[in-house]
Amino acid sequence: MKWKVRSVTKTTNNYFQTYKTYYLAGVALIIGWIIYIVSFWKFYQDMYFWVDKGVRYVVQLLFISSFYLTEIMVYTTFYFLLLLASLFLLLFFFLKNIKEDSVGKGMLGTFFGFGAIPLFCSITLLVTLCWPYFLAILIASFVVVYITYVITKYLYEDNQEHYTNGECIKEEGPFSQLEEAEKYSTDFITYWAPHFMKQSFTLVSDISQKEEGYLVKIYTSES
Length: 223
Description:
The chain has 223 residues and is of the alpha+beta class. The chain has helices spanning 12-18, 20-49, 57-67, 69-99, 105-126, 131-158, 178-197, and strands spanning 168-175, 201-210, 213-222. A 3-stranded antiparallel β-sheet has the order 1-3-2, with helices on one face. Helix 4 (69-99) packs antiparallel against helix 5.
């Protein structure tokens, strides 16, 4: 599928509207994390009551693994699913922002919001007696997401269609002022010039005046 670049500047409302699906998924995951950590903590308090605090940690781990293994496996499985979902959400949100040139305060703030609860819950789980189980799941989750990222990036770059000479890659407008159209054209070409140079193209703009305002079209041109 051909990659189309979008506007460099977006209003806040347009930004949130564009990524509404990601925000809804993020809210759902946050609710899931809260339910999960509250449920786990109740279970952990009941389990911890029966642990002999005077023995070595290895003995404590053997004790909880012997008597509470089923419950621990259930909680680690749900932790894996929640963590994997959160990491994939962050990954695809990041890739979409990069693709659509939306990197900015909105993306960074959202990253913090999406990542804060999973990070807090992971730290909480790693300070419990069950930390070896959760550490293994944490590492496995990052490995799965990293491998997915590498494969996705490879397939995307490998299947990227090449542009042709004189192809219109961007239309934007109308702009009320000629200066606005010229600034947009300059900013766009400056930002994307290195990418198109890899395919031996330069970018040229055509600004036309219509009844509704000034329209900008960006074309490829062989270097």
